[in-house]
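Attaching the record inline, Q. Sequence:
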Amino acid sequence: MYLELQFLYINYKRWMIEKQQFDDRSYRKKAGQVGKEMM
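Structure, as predicted:
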């Protein structure tokens, strides 16, 4: 039971990190597009 929870927690953390990186990338892309439009 404890190991299962630990496994789920690790997967959850990994997913959160990947999601964060993905959000950062799409945010940078949007910011880059806005920057081009402003110039």
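The chain has a mean pLDDT of 89. Helices lie at 2-38.

More tomorrow.
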